[in-house]
Design goal:
Layout (H helix, E strand, L loop, with lengths): L3 E6 L2 E8 L2 E10 L2 H18 L3 E9 L4 H14 L5 E6 L4 H13 L3 E5 L2 H10 L2
Parallel strand pairs: 3-4, 4-5, 5-6
Antiparallel strand pairs: 1-2, 2-3
Helix pairs in contact: 1-2, 2-3
């Protein structure tokens, strides 16, 4: 299966590309918020299940960021969406590495295998080959 597919979310777009060994998802044209993050992670989990992917590379290119207090709610939603079944590399293309790293720690505590990166190549290597 190859080719790209662009999906409209509530306030953002996702371009999906099925790559050898993983699903690549570029999230763009939007402003991050609690509502956007909840929808984005739910949609990503649904697409992984639809294409049979257990590895996910997320490139997030959204303006703004969610507040620290909202991160717990987002991660609870990720658990509910089934993210314990996926190995996820998250690339912050704009500027919220610190917030994403906080979220990464909370995810790991809840059994979600995820790492935060600022470089897509590094993220892909970790996703496919491990630490």
């Amino acid at each position: 299966m190859s080719g790209s597919r662009i999906v409209e979310g509530p306030g953002f777009k996702i371009r999906y590309d099925v790559e050898p060994g993983y699903l690549r998802a570029h999230v763009y044209e939007g402003t991050d918020s609690l509502h956007v993050s909840l929808a984005m992670w739910r949609m990503l989990a649904e697409e992984c299940r639809a294409v049979g992917a257990d590895r996910l590379l997320v490139l997030e290119e959204l303006d703004s960021t969610v507040g620290v207090a909202e991160v717990v709610q987002i991660i609870d939603s990720m658990v509910d969406a089934g993210f314990r079944m996926f190995r996820t590399a998250f690339v912050e293309l704009l500027d919220d590495i610190q917030g994403s790293e906080h979220g990464e720690i909370l995810c790991l505590e809840r059994g979600i295998v995820i790492r935060t990166f600022s470089d897509e190549d590094e993220a892909r290597r970790w996703l496919l080959y491990g630490d």
